[in-house]
Design goal:
Helices cover 41% and strands 0% of the residues. The chain is elongated and about 105 Å long.
Length: 148
């Protein structure tokens, strides 16, 4: 048998860096130092929730100028919601729980800060039994027999 030199090591395959390591700042700097070719690109809006982004139009609406403004619940509707709630003996929290909304929603409708939502108005109307839209705001709801 021939003599073998056990002190030398032959590397057959070198592991490439894992994806997370290859993307790190340190890996990029090391590749630059070694003179390797590399490419970096930044994904637009990566890892951000762009569903609630602010655009020029929403910023204008938030400022509420004369030409662009949100319609709010009227004073009359706010008072009717408050009176209906008190006549049923409910607190804001009780009414909110009854219609599956937050108590802050009821507070906003009573203080005329809310932007009218037909679904919420319909729930409140059924809970307090008073009309909140159209003609006769504040009048009791007429119960009609259901058609068969």
């Amino acid at each position: 048998m021939a003599e073998r030199n056990w002190d030398t090591v032959t590397v057959l395959h070198k592991k490439s860096p894992m994806a997370a390591q290859a993307k790190s700042k340190q890996a990029i700097l090391a590749a630059q130092r070694r003179g390797e070719d590399f490419e970096t690109s930044k994904k637009w809006a990566a890892g951000q929730n762009k569903q609630h982004s602010v655009t020029k139009n929403t910023a204008k609406l938030d400022r509420e100028t004369e030409e662009l403004h949100h319609n709010r619940v009227t004073l009359e509707v706010g008072k009717v919601v408050q009176q209906g709630q008190q006549s049923k003996g409910l607190t804001q929290k009780d009414l909110a729980t009854k219609i599956n909304e937050k108590a802050q929603v009821i507070a906003d409708y009573e203080s005329e800060r809310a932007i009218p939502n037909n679904q919420v108005l319909g729930k409140i109307k059924r809970a307090i039994g008073l009309k909140l839209r159209g003609k006769g705001v504040g009048k009791p709801i007429e119960k009609r027999p259901r058609a068969k």
